[in-house]
Amino acid sequence: MSEERGQDGTRRSSGPRKAQEIFDATLDLLAAKGYEGLTVEGVAQRSGVNKTTLYRWWPSKGALLGAALTGTRRLSLEPPDTGSLQGDLESLLQTVVTLLTVPPGSDIAVPALGAATQSPELAVHVREFFADRLAREQPLFERATARGELPSDADPMLLVDLLAGAAWLRVVLRQLPVEEDFVSRAVRTVLKGATTGS
Question: Residues in the chain with pLDDT < 50?
Answer without folding.
Answer: 1-13, 198
